Amino acid sequence: MPTKDPEKKKAKQARADAKRAGRTRNFATVVYPESAPADWMERLDQYHIAALVSPLHDKDKNPSGEPKKAHYHVLLMFESPADYESKVAPIFAEIGGVGRETVNSARGYARYLCHLDNPEKAQYSPSEVRCMGGADYYGVTNLPTDDAKLLGEVMDYIQENAIFSFAEFLQICRTYRPEWFSLVALSKGWIIKEFIKSLEWEKETGYVRAANRQPAACDPDTGEVLSEK
Question: Nearest 5°: phi and psi at 133?
């Protein structure tokens, strides 16, 4: 059996490595409304690929403080590695996508669609993210700290609007706040039910919360009460 030419083997390996380098599961691009087809979102939706489209970024600024041109961020998420040149580039070309962004983390990029981890940048509402092809923005981006923040928003909304019907609140979430609906339906529904029941009980009994009530001071090691408030 003749030995293979080392140089040919090396070249073949280099070609294989280059091909793998162009294959990943997640790809992103930027779309500028004035230069994209008017129906670019409909075209993208027809590919039936899991995709997330950001709200229109029309409040972003350059480091110098000048406004950036309004744009959308688009994230495509394939079920298996896809070749960019043959599978992704034609889609980006059809929707008017400008450039190709490297996506190391689908969750990280999805959160960037609304600048969730960039408080110094303009903030955009997760409820305005467009989900296509079965993509679930809440499912992709959710962190435990997000649940806590959303729960606080929910509690404030319920109390400020005197909502005493869990069914009414669910309908509000389903219609206007999909991220709240996901929170209620998937994890925190029982807490919100109890919160609404407690508010209703307070209203019926005339219970008044002690605004300045503080717990007794305790020794952190022994638990001994040091003083009564």
Answer: 60, 30
- Ramachandran angles phi, psi of 205, nearest 5°: -95, -10
Instruction: Tell me if residue 121 falls in helix, strand or coil.
Output: coil
DSSP assignment letter at 85: I
Antiparallel, parallel or unpaired: β 50-53 and 130-132: antiparallel
Q: What are phi and psi of 17, to 5 degrees?
A: -65, -40
Least confident of 19-23, 34-38, 108-112: 19-23
What's residue 143's pLDDT? 81
In the prediction, which pLDDT does 144 show?
79
The DSSP 8-state label assigned to residue 128 in this structure reads G
Which secondary structure element, helix H or strand E, spans residue 192, and what is its range?
helix 189-205
CA neighbor of 28 nearest in space, from 78, 69, 64: 78
Q: How far apart are CA 22 and CA 119, in angstroms?
A: 32
In 3D, which of 36, 37, 73, 71 has the Cα closest to residue 52?
Answer: 73
Q: What is the secondary structure of 107-120 as a DSSP string?
A: HHHHHHTTTTT-TT
Phi, psi of 111 (to 5 degrees): -70, -30
Task: Please answer whether residues 138 and 179 qualify as being in contact, where contact means their C-beta atoms are separated by less than 8 angstroms.
Answer: yes
Distance CA 156, CA 162 (A): 10
Could you give the 3-state DSSP secondary structure of residue 177? coil
Orientation angle between helical segments 189-205 and 144-160, nearest 10 degrees: 30
